[in-house]
Amino acid sequence: MSGSSALLRVDGLRVRYGGIEAVKGLSFHVDAGKTVALIGANGAGKSSTLKAIAGLERPVAGTVLLAGERIDSLPNHGLPSKGLILVPEGRGIFTRMTIHENLLIGAQARPLARRSDHLIQEALEAQYSLFPRLKERYQQLAGTLSGGEQQMLAMARALVGEPRLLLLDEPSMGLSPIMVDKIFEVIADISARGTTLLLVEQNARLALQIADYGYVLESGTLVKEGSGAELLESPEVRAAYLGE
């Protein structure tokens, strides 16, 4: 990717936990309308990178720009209104609220000009169309859903907010193989609709199959990059992350 149409640009990012530096001067970008995957072994710094971008971890150095605006010093609660929304590892849904109530909370991330009742209703219907299982259970408490249904809800709640950039952190974690396939079908659909995605995923094969571009991290540093197809064919990637 050239970077000339970058929606997200990360330069020299460093994240530290006490004396341990989890991300070591990482630089990369995500072009508007593209799906980008961050892959690597456990502890490579993938989730720490997403958390820093989303304002959940304060970087010790580096810059994060969204559409040319520096956001790394902004409070995390201010980022959804800028168009950056994270679906965290573990989903982060409100378990004692219904599906519908969770989605209404997600709608509060929308720009003020797009929070009218009829526009929110249109957004809810769009998500119920994308996730028909949620529509069937819209009055059900979120905590009673299966893991896969909770993941669908977390993604739907984020999409109701109309993100310019959607961050997905380990969306397949803890799900059955059948549900993993379903979740990735939905992610591919979201990507095809033009939403810009930055994806961290333990299943590198599935991530690269839908990614326009990918970055490989090792111990907090970037060691390889290329199109999703190129990385799928890379002997090093196949040996290290695809079980071949």
Describe this structure in words.
α2 (99-106) runs parallel beside α5 and α3 (117-130) runs antiparallel to α5 (147-160). The protein has a six-stranded mixed β-sheet, sandwiched between helices. Strands 2-1-4-5 form a four-stranded antiparallel β-sheet, with helices on one face. It has 244 residues and is of the alpha/beta class. The chain has helices at 46-53, 99-106, 117-130, 132-136, 147-160, 177-192, 204-210, 228-233, 235-241; strands spanning 6-17, 20-31, 35-39, 61-66, 69-70, 84-87, 165-169, 196-200, 213-218, 221-227. Helices cover 35% and strands 26% of the residues. It is globular.
Indicate the mean pLDDT.
Answer: 93
> Which strand order does the major sheet show?
6-7-8-3-9-10
Q: What is the 3D form?
A: globular
Q: Let me know the largest β-sheet.
A: 6 strands, mixed
CATH hierarchy class name: Alpha Beta
Into which percent range does the helicity of residues fall?
25-40%
CATH architecture: 3-Layer(aba) Sandwich
Helix-and-strand structural type: alpha/beta
Count, helices: 9
- Taking pLDDT < 50 over at least 5 consecutive residues as the criterion, the unreliable ranges are none
* CATH homolog superfamily: P-loop containing nucleotide triphosphate hydrolases
**Tally of structural domains:** 1
Distance between the first and last residues' Cα: 27 Å
Nearest-angstrom radius of gyration? Answer: 17 Å
What is the CATH T-level topology?
Answer: Rossmann fold
Reading the helices and strands in chain order gives: EEEHEEEHHHHEHEHEEHH
Number of strands: 10
Proportion of strand residues = 25-35%
